[in-house]
Amino acid sequence: MADTREKILMTALHLFARDGYAAVSVSAIAGALGMTKGALYKHYENKRDIFDSIVQRIYQIDAQRAKEYAVPEEIYDVDPASYRDITADSIKIYTLSQFTFWSEDAFASDFRRMLTLEQYRSAEMAELYSSCLTSGPIAYMEDIFREMMNKGILKEGNPKLLALEFYAPLYLLVNRSDQAISHGELKELLNDHIERFFRNNAAHQ
């Protein structure tokens, strides 16, 4: 049963990414899987149930990846202590892994493409897009950089501007990866950006 639920989830997300959430019906999902709607309803109550499971999955993955790469799992207001011992190396490794995740992982790529399509059609989707791909990551990096300034790792400055400067190339390069450009080349550009960023903003040069 778990395998069937997973197949439904992945197939639905792929259809949402290709055609948009609003355009895909339960019948279309069932048809793509070669099953009846009745069989699908044994695993998910409706299309919204599938969507909610997709969102829950992406947040679970995000928390697992943060833990794996030793960066904060929660926002600053929930767990400020976890922001106080972050190193430039951990940020670099995590950021490079984020590029690979959002550009190459099938689940993450389809989730991103779904939100890109739907952000202009739904306030809820626009908010989710912002939380996962724009304002959320920028706020996260702002809190990290503020703590790094407080510890004397980075030069004093505006942490929000630093967060924008740091995150913008990652966002752009992830989107560029959709145009079949070499992921290796894009990742190398991102690596060079990260190294230059920390070199230029280090408190002790």
Describe the overall structure.
The chain is mainly alpha-helical and about 200 residues long. It contains 10 helices and no strands. The model has no long low-confidence stretch (mean pLDDT about 95).
How do the strands and helices of this protein lay out in sequence?
Layout (H helix, E strand, L loop, with lengths): L1 H18 L6 H8 L3 H4 L6 H22 L19 H17 L1 H13 L4 H11 L1 H16 L8 H18 L6 H19 L4
Please identify the structural class as seen in this structure: mainly alpha
Low-confidence stretches: none
* Percentage of residues assigned to helices: over 70%
**Biggest sheet, open or closed, and with what strands and sense?**
none
Taken from the alpha-carbon principal axes, the silhouette is elongated
Beta content: under 5%
Question: What is the average per-residue confidence, as pLDDT, rounded to a whole number?
Answer: 94
Please count the helical segments: 10
Oligomer description = single chain
Distance between the first and last residues' Cα: 57 Å
Helix-strand string: HHHHHHHHHH
> Measured on Cα atoms, how large is the radius of gyration?
19 Å
Number of strands: 0
Give a quick set of tags describing it.
single chain; mainly alpha; 205 residues; 10 helices
Compact summary:
This protein is mostly helical and 205 residues long. The chain has ten helices and no strands.
